[in-house]
Design goal:
The structure holds 2 protein chains of 2 kinds.
Chain A: E1 3-7, E2 10-12, E3 18-25, E4 34-39, E5 45-51, E6 58-60, E7 68-73, E8 78-83, E9 92-98, E10 104-105, E11 109-113
Parallel strand pairs in A: 2-11
Antiparallel strand pairs in A: 1-3, 3-8, 4-5, 4-9, 5-6, 7-8, 9-10, 9-11
Chain B: E1 4-7, E2 10-13, E3 19-25, E4 38-43, E5 50-54, E6 58-59, E7 67-72, E8 75-80, E9 89-95, E10 103-104, E11 108-112
Parallel strand pairs in B: 2-11
Antiparallel strand pairs in B: 1-3, 3-8, 4-5, 4-9, 5-6, 7-8, 9-10, 9-11
The chains are: A mainly beta, B mainly beta.
Chain lengths: 115, 113
């Protein structure tokens, strides 16, 4: 069974940092692009970042560019999102998503940025 | 950037009746490889999104056949032939044609009248 398990969410003050992780199982992790998508309170889905399986290239939404860093460890089947200089508007549930076609989603981890 | 526009925002439906959701993109979603990477997702209350349809009209495994997708170019539609209580939730379209910048529609809330 394909599974994605996020962790690392929590409460952080504006300007702080947080690192999210996603443990993948049930599929050949190294062969798939991986994506982070977030959903603010009562809001829709927003693509955040993608890391390519082919060349490890990283891509970001303008709203997080320069502050967030996506990475992957294929030996551990793990995806990460380092979030720096957090803002109140980064408050959201963050989903780890398999592939650019988004066929499998994790349960999400909640990030709250507040003073 | 590609903008995805869904309508309506809210869709009250009587049980057993059909429902239709529109999704329009600001640019063509036909990829250079000839495919169109337009997906539909369902998010039930309190749950993670679940993909229903990929590449415009292909149902994911386990998705009831009352769900169907159609469209081309910039105009796409998700139809539910006969709405059931378990279909309540928010539906999103998403384009992956313009990889790596993925874009979601704003969502359509389906509720029972």
């Amino acid at each position: 069974e394909v599974q994605l398990l996020e962790s690392g969410g929590g409460l952080v003050q504006p300007g702080g940092s947080l690192r999210l992780s996603c443990e993948a199982s049930g599929f050949m992790f190294s062969r798939f692009d991986m994506t982070w998508v977030r959903q603010g309170p009562g809001m829709g889905l927003e693509w955040v970042s993608l890391i390519s399986a082919t060349d490890g290239s990283t891509h970001y939404a303008d709203s997080v560019k320069g502050r967030f860093i996506i990475s992957r460890d294929n030996s551990k089947n793990t995806l990460s999102l380092q979030m720096n200089s957090l803002r109140v508007e980064d408050t959201a549930v963050y989903y780890c998503v398999k592939g650019a076609w988004a066929d499998v989603w994790g349960q999400g981890t909640t990030v709250t940025v507040s003073s | 950037d590609v903008v995805m526009t869904q309508s309506p925002l809210s869709l009250p439906v009587t049980l057993g009746q059909p429902a239709s959701i529109s999704c329009r993109s600001s640019q063509s979603l036909v990829h250079s490889d000839g495919n169109t990477y337009l997906n539909w997702f369902q998010q039930r209350p309190g749950q993670s999104p679940r993909r229903l349809i990929y590449m415009v009209s292909n149902r994911d495994s386990g998705v009831p056949d009352r769900f169907s997708g159609s469209g081309s170019g910039t105009d796409f539609t998700l139809k539910i032939s006969r709405v059931e209580a378990e279909d309540v939730g928010i539906y999103y379209c998403m384009q992956a044609t313009h990889w790596p910048l993925l874009t979601f529609g704003g969502g359509t809330k389906v509720e029972i009248k």
